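Batch job 17 of 40 flagged for manual review because the log was empty.
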Amino acid sequence: MAVVFFGSNFTIVKKYDSGDGIFFQLWMCMGIWTVGLVVNLIQGSPKFWPFAMLGGVLWAIGNVLCVYIIQQIGLGLGLVIWGSTLMLTGWFTGFFGLFGLEKDDISVVWLSVIGLVFALASLLTSFFVEITHVPEASSRQPNSEEGFAPLPSDDVDYNNDEDLKTAEAKVSAQEGEEVKSTGSPKSKVRGIICALCAGFFFGINFDPPTYIQQHNCEDDNRCDEQYRGASSEPLDYVFAHFCGIIIMSMFIFFSYAIYKRNTPWVSPQICLPAYLSGGSSVNNT
């Protein structure tokens, strides 16, 4: 179920222009928050723990970084890097009990370490992937129309097979020069750094609610008096977590609007698809 929703939530918005992604992520987070509200009502409106909102804030920061990452190094490489970093962050957190969390009980440690090595190797090899960019239509030659490359200006007899092949070769070479351009090293480095940061934020975004659950002074859990009696049910923290997401996404959008001098990129067509995308993406939780 998680694979289905995680793998298909962006298909809803595939045919719509999402611009620079800031407006899109705002509406996406609205959809996420709505699902959280429904879950909160189903759970009987459990006690709201503000500390759990920190996880949502971290997730929203990682989510908005993805827009920049895709622009710099592409979705494929970006997903590999932030996904690998997410997994590594989760592994180290659980294995060593970082951030005050309990250590995971691993039955076969050597097998877990082998998995870690493969994940780390995948992350390191991804750094050497060559980046190519496809320029927008506005960057094409001024005399091209509708995205088509202009025909050669030579006097060519198109009834002659040899001349026709020569003309096609010239057009193909011209298109190749226009379409592919290798990304700059600085652009790649910036994209990789942001992907590493996004993966780290994704990897620790559930730590705040997990900390509360593990320090509620019940059963064999640790005891932190301010969280005494807190619920051990993960779904009871969904609403607080998603409140952190929507608040941070609104802060990001308003900051972006100020930076753009009240002329942010917006599109009414993306609102509903982005909203549905956010709602479907959290069904894997």
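Reviewer: the log was empty due to a logging misconfiguration, but the result itself is present. The chain has ten helices and two strands. Unflagging and moving on to job 18.
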